[in-house]
């Protein structure tokens, strides 16, 4: 759910990081939200079947919303890049003095001396394509997105969410009452969140044990709150 | 849910964009997932109260998972920046020739001539702080994150999710049966998704009518799928 702003050091694994990031996004939410929803319902209803129905409906809703949302935001990123590229080409053609001044300001901000700025501006703006590429990357911070990424990202996030969501739900299939299901679901899911949080933190170079506790903590707090609210509503 | 990678043109509204982005993230999911879950359940149960209980449990679970997830990923971003900063200072001190060569490569990649590269490397690496700042920004693409951002982001995303989720659910409070609730919920929510999608696209400079249809489409597909799955499970 949350937008995970992870910037792995570029010298390390770059191609796999986009896919891993999508799996992390899908799994974090898939493990926590269906777990907490099912936990909440087990405090309010007597039928395991109802918990399973609601859980599966949530998994389908969540994975489609996340997957399709991811797909469309990937497409938006492509469109945005293309429209900014057109805009920069237009500006370089129509107001070259403004754009040249922007290049100079960027170089000044980096810490170059006025003389070197002059020389560098001349060289960077000599070629139109190179000039626009410089503006895209260093003024706007935009890199050409991979066109296949939108589709792959959608599938990965959606699948990871569904997979993550089936783990806490599986306990309710195997038990007789929602309360019994909740016990097993909590054990299995918190264990998975600990393991997942551990590896996720190692991936981003953060302290892994602390990361494990954080993931499990989010799940536990969300489940406890959902349980409380569902009890409250049923009690009205 | 999905991580929306939006890069508004830096010349436009910068301070508000982070908050708006958080509201957009929270609202997109808040409007779609609880809507789809409630729609799914109305295909399977006879009691509006159950739909409301499950819907509220989902809103609580989702807003905590998103809010807390956003908070912790903001904190991770801070930690990551701090640890990369330490690493760059260390590298500049311990292997200055390697780091100087990295600066030169970045400048070569920009399109500077070898002579200008030499001169620019000398100037950029003259001051240690400026050198590290250059590496952080242009080699790693990292900017100093705002320490307050993590907390604010959590609150904004969580609140937007809860607010968004209460809209589709409100229909079930006011109607006698889940089916009746579903009808009104669909009308209200799809209308909200159209309006929300319209403004969200305008915000990022995308075609607004197309954006409106996309948002409503995600909600409709997720709701229809959840409805289908819940019917299927109940029928077993």
Describe the protein's architecture and organization.
Chains A, B: GO terms for molecular function: manganese ion transmembrane transporter activity. Chains A, B: The chain crosses the membrane at residues 154-175, 181-199, 211-233. The structure is a homodimer of 236-residue chains. With 236 residues, chain A is mainly alpha-helical. Chain A folds into two domains: 18-71 and 146-235, no CATH class; 86-139. Chain A is built from eight helices and no strands. The first copy, chain A, has helices spanning 15-42, 48-94, 96-110, 114-124, 128-139, 149-174, 178-203, 208-235. In chain A, helix 1 (15-42) runs antiparallel to helix 2 (48-94), helix 2 packs antiparallel against helix 6 (149-174) and helix 7 packs antiparallel against helix 8. The radius of gyration of chain A is 24 Å and the shape is elongated. Chain A starts with 14 loop residues before the first helix and ends with a helix. Residues 1-15 of chain A have low confidence and may be disordered. At the A-B interface, helix 1, helix 2, helix 4, helix 5 and helix 8 of A face helix 1, helix 2, helix 4, helix 5 and helix 8 of B.
